[in-house]
Inverse folding.
């Protein structure tokens, strides 16, 4: 196996790993843009999305890629409820209160999931698990290609929604200037609900893709991806969606590169080393505007 | 200032008071039951193992109590067992609280359980200080009974340690896989077999790594370790680690990993990184979810085992294991796992030593544990008996090797025992797709 | 002034209760153990609270907790010094590293700061198990001498009173800092850094000072826990360890002296109290719900509860005559 081939492979694993991060990070960033909050419990929505997918799959035997729509709808509802009853009352009371609230939500969601679905780890097999497609020197499983394509479609859809639709434009206006948006008659509280729900739907999509790619899941699976997604949006710049995508790709590739060159235990640490170096140079992240 | 002086006076007064009132031991009434404290992780990330351990303990206690309990000579009657649960919450702080509660509030006679070496080693001190016999049935690190900074003489280890994991696997590779490869590919007999190791960066993973290293050196085996890679516990993406391992061209890969990790690693290795090689994993992987998770990518891979959901060495062990599995299934609607099996035996050991000691005196029970020799139950033991070694108080398991074979009727792989010769059902097969490594 | 005096008497009463508690509980080992861990986490939460008071919310305080634990253990093992000395040396080393970490953080705010501190806890853990593995025992961990040898009769009580004294000392220290010029400077920086600079407060200096004190106290807390456990493993850098001081402090009341104490005590009682009922997941669900409700209805923490009740009472009394007519 040549050096180039190994490099290409690692790059591809990074790209694939980046997809789940990007979906989570984009959702977090959308929420941050509009509401100026970061939900540390975002990974729990990924976890719920994974369980919803697995449960529907077990009950109906539908193609898991179709279930993605269902799990997104479920999470839109959960997201709206969490926004309305948990985050809205504490808006503006301080960043640390948001962390505190997220920790409460983490306890709540993880243990509710453990009650409902037990805490045994599970996994399911995609119907395409045995199909691989040779691309150049690589032999790429079909599932990974679908995952990358689905991620791209979701991101393109989000882009269109934000640019073209009325609601999307109102959301962008709110994230640029909340008071101004209020003055021109935008219902900013409705925008809060929308952004939070869409963010949760993206996490649900990530959850479905997680399950379909054959990764195991349990009630505690959400915390680590959420922290990484959080680090990614800090790296890319809070509120910047291109920043989230590029940050996600950098992380996916850097982690895999570090695992290859330094050993697996440096995988998590290296992403934070990158983060710290970037922030020392640019305190607002790669694409962040200076100041808030 | 006045505030500080007052406070210091307060504390000094209290300490003096404390010195005067030494605790007197509580009166000895005739006990109505044997209290066994079961330390398990009922909550937190390790809870799925912990719950299985607790449920298995309950099955054992129910069986013993259905028989009237345990005969204690001192009281000249049979008394029942009562299990008291101690939830360590999968954390060190939680473990401390759970163990002190069991020892001082519940005043247990014997402790059984303990999972995760990191959690167990932080509360071991309390067990040692209070001299409560403790049968460890879940933590795999040999440090538990080998450490010298505390008195571990009350602590007995009844589950295989990482030392035995690595040793048995290495022997199997040397005695079975190496000759099979040499025969099939016409290699000379003195060719060094190329082993690569992937291990979890934890006492568990490192223990397996060093045990294999030691066995190769001590037994002067014709094997060399050509690559080693570690990863952090809970990892789900192993492709890069596997790519590095593949680049070292191994003949076999020894993966010292947890089942939730291996269920992802094996498909990634066989499908994504296309490693046409034999994977070997330690005994903790032999669980129903593992078979479900690996799908057909597990075919022909090897699991070291002491208790399997789907097979057992023929003879009395198979019957006992089947009876235990059925009882467990009736009560809890699931399969017991290997940690559950050793905890089930742990409760029986606790009952047996109480009977042998003829009293609930803790020192007498410890001595009874030291001289214990009882027939094996649901897991194969060396010499067919459960007994603890004189030096480090470890029981000796007879680990066996299973090869996974695809079973189209259940659409999952199923294990067959291929080693050692005394226990095996059939012989190890080198699959057609297998490719040996090369320098 | 009256209120000040009330608080003094109240805190004296609390210490008095803490001092006689072991006798009320008849030196029950389990409850003493819960109390000792509670005291250690009071120190840890108070140290986090001090840093937050200067406007810097850390998400990786376990780094200092762990550094204190490892440094104190290694010094005690290598030199044979008593843990009573080494806990403070461990704290000093944590403070030194705290300044270094603080240096990278001075330009950062809010989430950025949070994430960098979080990252440091992970990096410190990676260093502990890789480069320093020969010293620290890697993931196996190493044994640590106990604060008081278990051969000494009544050792657990001596440990309890030692830790109680240190806790009281730490809280007194933080009280003095809050009341001093330094505390004023912290507050000024938190409220508005530019204005603080204009009025002659050097934000960088005071931010680093806050980092040093906070990291040092967290290090002492970590060292105490480790010498109490008698064993240290890299799990001490865990994410959950970083989250506890945040939960305790904000539940009690951010930026107040009593907040971390009240929060730790209340949550410990709840946590271990609910365990008595044999609840497992339900316990976490109840605690999670309590955390959510508390931050919604009491955003200033449990310490604001008396004021809130008083306010509610006043409003009620004002209203009731109206209702009568």
């Amino acid at each position: 196996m040549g050096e180039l081939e190994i490099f290409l492979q690692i790059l591809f694993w990074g790209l694939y790993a980046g997809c789940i991060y990007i979906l989570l990070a984009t959702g977090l960033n959308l929420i941050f843009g509009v509401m100026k909050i970061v939900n540390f419990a975002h990974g729990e929505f990924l976890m719920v999305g994974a369980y919803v997918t697995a449960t529907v799959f077990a009950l109906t035997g539908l193609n898991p890629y179709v279930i993605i729509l269902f799990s997104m709808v479920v999470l839109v509802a959960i997201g709206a409820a969490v926004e309305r009853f948990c985050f809205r009352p504490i808006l503006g009371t301080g960043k640390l209160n948001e962390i505190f609230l997220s920790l409460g939500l983490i306890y709540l969601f993880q243990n509710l999931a453990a009650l409902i679905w037990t805490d045994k780890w599970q996994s399911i097999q995609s119907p395409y698990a045995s199909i691989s497609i040779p691309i150049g020197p690589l032999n790429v499983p079909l599932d990974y290609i679908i995952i990358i394509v689905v991620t791209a479609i979701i991101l393109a859809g989000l882009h269109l929604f934000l640019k073209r639709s009325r609601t999307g434009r109102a959301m962008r206006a709110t994230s640029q200037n909340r008071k101004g948006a209020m003055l021109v008659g935008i219902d900013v509280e409705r925008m809060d609900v929308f952004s939070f729900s869409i963010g949760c739907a993206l996490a649900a999509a990530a959850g479905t893709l997680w399950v379909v790619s054959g990764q195991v899941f349990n009630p505690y699976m959400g915390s680590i991806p959420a922290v990484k997604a959080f680090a990614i949006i800090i790296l890319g710049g809070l509120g910047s969606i291109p920043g989230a995508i590029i940050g996600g790709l950098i992380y996916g590739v850097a982690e895999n590169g570090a695992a290859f060159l330094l050993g697996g235990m440096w995988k998590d640490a290296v992403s934070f080393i990158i983060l710290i170096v970037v922030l020392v140079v640019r305190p607002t992240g790669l694409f962040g505007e200076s100041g808030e | 200032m006045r505030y500080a002086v007052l406070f210091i006076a307060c504390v000094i007064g209290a300490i003096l008071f404390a010195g005067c009132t030494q605790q007197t031991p509580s009166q000895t009434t005739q006990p109505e039951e044997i209290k066994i404290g079961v330390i398990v992780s009922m909550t937190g990330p390790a809870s799925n193992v912990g719950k299985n351990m607790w449920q298995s303990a309950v099955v054992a206690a129910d069986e013993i109590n259905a028989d009237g309990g345990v005969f204690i000579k001192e009281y000249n009657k049979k008394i029942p067992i009562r299990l008291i649960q101690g939830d360590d919450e999968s954390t060190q702080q939680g473990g401390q609280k759970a163990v002190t509660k069991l020892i001082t509030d519940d005043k247990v006679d014997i402790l059984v359980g303990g999972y995760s070496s990191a959690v167990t080693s932080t509360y071991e001190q309390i067990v040692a200080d209070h001299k409560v016999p403790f049968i460890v049935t879940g933590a795999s690190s040999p440090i538990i009974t080998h450490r010298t900074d505390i008195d571990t003489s009350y602590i007995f280890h009844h589950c295989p340690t990482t030392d035995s994991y690595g040793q048995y696997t290495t022997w199997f590779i040397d005695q079975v896989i190496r000759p099979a490869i040499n025969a099939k590919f016409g290699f000379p007999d003195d060719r060094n077999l190329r082993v690569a190791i992937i291990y979890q960066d934890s006492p568990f993973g490192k223990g397996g790594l060093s045990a294999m290293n030691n066995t190769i050196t001590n037994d002067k085996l014709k094997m060399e370790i050509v690559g080693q890679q570690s990863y952090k516990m809970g990892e789900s993406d192993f492709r890069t680690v596997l790519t590095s391992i593949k680049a070292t061209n191994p003949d076999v890969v020894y993966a010292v990993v947890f089942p939730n990790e291996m269920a992802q690693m094996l498909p990634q290795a066989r499908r994504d990184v296309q490693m046409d090689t034999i994977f070997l994993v330690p005994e903790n992987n032999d669980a129903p979810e593992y078979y479900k998770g690996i799908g057909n990518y597990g075919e022909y891979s090897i699991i070291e085992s002491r208790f399997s959901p789907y097979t057992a060495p023929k003879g009395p062990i198979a019957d006992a294991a089947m009876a235990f599995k059925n009882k467990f299934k009736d009560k809890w609607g699931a399969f017991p796992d290997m940690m559950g099996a050793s905890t089930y035996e742990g409760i029986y050991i606790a009952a047996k030593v109480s009977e042998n000691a003829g009293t609930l005196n803790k020192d007498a029970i410890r001595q009874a544990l030291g001289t214990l020799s009882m027939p094996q139950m649901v897991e194969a033991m060396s010499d067919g008996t459960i007994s603890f070694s004189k030096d480090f108080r470890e029981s000796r398991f007879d680990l066996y090797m299973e090869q996974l074979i695809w079973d189209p009727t259940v659409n999952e792989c199923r294990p067959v025992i291929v080693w050692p010769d005394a226990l095996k059902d059939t012989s190890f097969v080198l699959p057609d797709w297998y490719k040996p490594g090369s320098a | 002034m009256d209120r000040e005096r009330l608080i003094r008497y109240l805190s004296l009463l609390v210490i008095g209760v803490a001092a006689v508690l072991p006798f009320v509980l008849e030196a029950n080992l389990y409850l003493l153990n819960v109390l000792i861990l509670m005291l250690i986490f009071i120190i840890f939460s108070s140290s986090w609270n001090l840093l937050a008071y200067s406007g810097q919310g850390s998400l990786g305080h376990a780094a200092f907790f762990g550094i204190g634990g490892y440094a104190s253990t290694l010094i005690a093992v290598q030199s044979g010094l008593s843990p009573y000395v080494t806990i403070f040396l461990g704290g000093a080393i944590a403070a030194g590293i705290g300044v270094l970490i603080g240096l990278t953080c001075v330009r950062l705010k809010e989430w950025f700061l949070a994430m960098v501190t979080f990252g440091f806890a992970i990096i410190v853990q990676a260093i502990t198990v890789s480069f320093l593995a020969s010293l620290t025992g890697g993931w196996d961990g190493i044994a640590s001498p106990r604060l008081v040898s278990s051969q000494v009769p009544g050792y657990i009580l001596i440990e309890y009173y030692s830790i109680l004294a240190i806790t009281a000392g730490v809280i007194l220290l933080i009280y003095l800092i809050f009341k001093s010029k330094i505390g004023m400077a912290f507050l000024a920086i938190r409220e508005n850094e530019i204005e603080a600079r204009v009025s002659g407060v050097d934000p960088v200096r005071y931010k680093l000072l806050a980092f040093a004190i906070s990291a040092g106290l967290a290090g002492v807390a970590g060292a105490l826990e480790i010498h109490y456990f008698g064993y240290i493993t890299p799990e001490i850098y865990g994410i959950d360890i970083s989250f506890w001081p945040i939960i305790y402090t904000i539940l009690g009341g951010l930026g107040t002296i009593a907040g971390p104490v009240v929060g730790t005590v209340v949550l410990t009682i709840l946590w271990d109290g609910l365990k008595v009922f044999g609840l497992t997941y339900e316990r976490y669900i109840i605690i999670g719900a309590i955390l959510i409700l508390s931050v919604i209805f009491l955003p200033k923490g449990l310490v604001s509860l008396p004021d809130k009740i008083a306010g509610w009472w006043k409003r009620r009394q004002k209203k009731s005559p109206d209702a009568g007519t």
About this structure: DSSP finds 13 helices and 16 strands in chain B.
